[in-house]
Automatic annotation (TrEMBL):
PANTHER family: HEAVY METAL-DEPENDENT TRANSCRIPTIONAL REGULATOR HI_0293-RELATED (PTHR30204:SF94), REDOX-CYCLING DRUG-SENSING TRANSCRIPTIONAL ACTIVATOR SOXR (PTHR30204). The keyword DNA-binding applies. GO terms for molecular function: DNA binding. It comes from the Bacteria. Keywords: DNA-binding, Transcription, Transcription regulation. Residues 1-68 form the HTH merR-type domain. The keyword DNA-binding applies. This is MerR family transcriptional regulator. The lineage of its organism: Bacteria, Bacillati, Bacillota, Bacilli, Lactobacillales. It comes from Enterococcus casseliflavus (Enterococcus flavescens).
Amino acid sequence: MRISEVAKRAELTKKAVLYYCEQGLLFPKILENGYRSFSEADVIRLQTIGLYRKLGLSVVEIKAYCAHPEYLKQIIQERKQAARKLEETIQLLDALADGRPIEELAEEIGSLDKKKTIMTKLFELFPSNYGRLIGFHFSCYLDEPIETKEQQQAFQEIVEFLDTTDPFVLSEELTLFLEEHTPSFTKEQVEEMRVFKEQSLSNYSDFVKNNKETIQAYHAFKASPAYLDSPLKQIEEQMKHFYQSSGYYEKFIPAMRRVSPSYEAYYQKLLAADEMEQKHLK
């Protein structure tokens, strides 16, 4: 059946159906003329996806759940934790509305603040685009609370680094180039990229084996005049200089590894993957 019919039966828009196909949640048959042909099973799957979405699950969560049904338990725990935090916040706001001085609630507010995720704390301390930039790169590894003294110390080191380091600034020309050539990613798309990156690192030997030509072509492009004379190369060099001169590798990254167990796990996978890549390229 055509997309218009399947969309009507699943009570979805055609754009939603196309989006789910692009995200790998649906695999209709592609006809010789390039049109998609949907089956009865596709209708049922779309109806199921629609129900998951009404329950508040993101596309990334639905994909993870379909691949690993046990992931639903993690989603439930995250929702329960968020609900508990919201309820505690509402209770404190109710107390304020009833006339209790905020000074009397300081201890309870402090206790609630300790439960906030690292990323939430950073956004509160750096509400500008500077904080958003850090969040874009690291938010998926900072969605956890600070639980130990070592984490608290590492967090303070991150705050001090961000507060005392001049932000990375590009020329107007390079900024315009970056804006024109960089897509605007949604939170879900960023999470999708993170999941893909994690999966690639978890099975890196297979990834390299299946993509050896692509990897070699990438390195060849990085050494070509087309890249060496491009604005992208200029941006890369300026970023490299910023990282080296600001103490990014010596201060920020070590603190990130100590504050976030999930980032430390990712970092170790990255080191192993880099070592393996060098062996394959020899």
